[in-house]
Amino acid sequence: MAQEIEEESLLVYARAIGGSTPPLLMNPPPDWTVKFFTKKAPRSLYVKLAGDVSAYRFSDGAKLDPESTLGELNLLPYELIEFRSDG
Amino acid sequence: MMGNGMKTKSRAKQLYWKPSYVDLDAMYPPLASAGIQFDDWDKWDDPFNLSYRQYIDVQAKKEVGYHPVRESFERYKGDQHVPARWYDGMKLVFPYLQTAEVAAGRAHARTARYAPAPALRAAAFYQSIDEMRHFQNHTYELRTYTQADSGFDNWAAWRDHHFAMGPARYIFEDLMNADNVFETIMALNICVEVVFTNLIFVGIPSVGALNGDTAMAQEMLTTQSDETRHMAIGQSTLRTLLRDERNVEQLQYWLDKWFWLQHRAVAGPIGMIPDYFAKRKYISYQQMYQRYVIDNFIAGMVDDLAEFGLKQPRFLEDAKAELPDYSHTLYRTLFQYKNVLFNQMFVPTDEDMEFFTSNYPTFEANHGQFWDEVRNGDPKDLPQLAMLCQMCGLPCVFPVPERANVQCSMYDGKAFWFCSNGCKYIFDHEPYRYAARVTMEKTLNGLSVPEIRSAMRLTPGTGGLLTADKDI
Q1: Domain coordinates in residue numbering, chain B
Q2: At how many degrees (to 10) do helices B166-176 and B84-114 cross?
Q3: Is B451's CB within 8 Å of A11's CB?
Q4: Low-confidence ranges of chain B (pLDDT < 70)
Q5: Rounded to whole angstroms, what are the CA distances from B387 to A38, B400, B401, B417?
Q6: Is B179 helix (H, G, I), strand (E, B) or coil?
Q7: What is the ipTM of this complex?
Q8: What is the pLDDT of residue B8?
């Protein structure tokens, strides 16, 4: 039985460097900004990252613009977003 | 001069019977052995060349050696001498093994049907029956276990619906469906039976016997007595094919691929047994792997075949590098899934921790903090399933979750994720074969713990552990 996901939702993995939780699949709405997702996702990953935190696209290592929405990033299905502490 | 009796016997042993009613290429399609060169398949030699009568006689004697031990164990309540945690380990091992045995039986049956050499077909026929015997005897063991602990009667439900059994299905069912019978032989007779069955059917029973599970120990040993025949057939096949240098590249790829996949598949259920589920321990998983895989297979066989151009498996060094953390990473991860598991995952005791630190020099640095936090009351439960490898189905947590070596390939407009360089390498060679595989986290993604249980058709049973939904 597959979960019904809202059509508009994205399907991405997320992980936080330094936490012991492996990557988890998430389905954030495309109108969330990277900044908002960066604030929300680490809570689900059970990790508190110190200082400022940035999001990176794992496949090419690109740092994601915090003001961009997730929908603007043209993420492929099942892309991995990595959160790292800048400090 | 050969007498009439001898002539009849000799004819009966001649396996090459040319059919008059159908073309040989239609009967044994060349596609099943495409790319593999051999001058005359009819001259292929089987080192055993058994008659059916001989085969049955030998197998019957093996059965006589096993069942009285099991019956005695049951009659005299042998289970009372077995630590409870051992049964929790066996709840992972046996559904996994059953998947492997059935797939192996069907894989050998495909070889018996499609192999171009008559001798290989006959040998594979016996091997297929062997796997059914193993399945039946494992089922006897499950019945014995049912008298000691609850839940063992649900093994088929775990096998069919539970994400923890996914790796067995992905890897063994793929092996069963290989187009080329020589890929099946390399995967099964070499990479399963030569490389890893000693670890499963010799190493694990020795730990089981130490923990009082003598019936399982005997059952595993009778299984292994068949595997030795399968190994000999695999080795003779490999040696024969390597004599033609045109086969080397293809055989090397299959060795690289299936060594890595079996390193993953076997580690799933087996790696945690000597280190965690055995209360009484005498050997670590790493030592066991060194003895049966590195010393026996690599030093004892692969290095011998170097003169024919065969190299060590491509990802052998990766496999060795993971060993100090392998069982610990897997156990930790399953511990985090304990609310959706059908067996009990316990917090290691002081004795366990002492064994780990004395046998694994990096244990404290890599896993100590995790267990300290658990002991301080953090359950570490995961809210949902973690990323699972598209190739092997295990969580992408190796070598340790904090520094997981996650790998990615883009194919057909999607990102695919792997737990290792080995799994990515295989996918990149055969993406058309593996991209369509729907892994369990893609069917269970984002679900809460009760929803995951419901999707797997499992409900909480005794002590909060999962049991099969009786309504299905």
Answers
A1: 25-384
A2: 20
A3: no
A4: 1-3, 7-15, 462-465, 468-472
A5: 19, 14, 11, 8
A6: coil
A7: 0.83
A8: 67
Residue at B167: amino acid letter: P
CATH code of the domain made up of A12-85? 3.10.20.90
Which residue has 């299936």 as its token pair? B258
Q: How far apart are CA B186 and CA B432, in angstroms?
A: 21
Q: Which of B175, B186, B179 is nearest to B310 (CA)?
A: B186
Q: Do B416 and A20 touch (CB under 8 A)?
A: no
CB contact under 8 A, B445 and A3: yes
Break chain A into its structural domains and give their ranges. 12-85
Q: How far is CA B115 from CA B39, B107, B126, B257, B373, in A?
A: 14, 11, 14, 21, 55
For the domain spanning B25-384, the CATH number is 1.10.620.20
Mean pLDDT of A1-11: 62
pLDDT in tens, B305-322: 999 999 999 999 999 999
Question: For chain A, what is the mean pLDDT?
Answer: 87
Mutation target to probe the B interface, by most B beta carbons within 10 A, among A9, A10, A25 is: A25
Q: Strands B414-418, A53-57: parallel, antiparallel or unpaired by DSSP? A: unpaired
List, in order, residues 6 or more apart from B262 with CB less than 8 Å away.
Answer: B171, B187, B191, B192, B195, B196
Q: Do B406 and A26 touch (CB under 8 A)?
A: no
CA distance B246 to B100: 31
Mutate to test the interface with A, among B160, B381, B382 (most CBs of A within 10 A): B382
**CA B441, B438, A2, B413 torsion-angle sign:** positive
| Burial of B361 (C-beta count, 10 Å sphere; 0-12/13-18/19+) | exposed
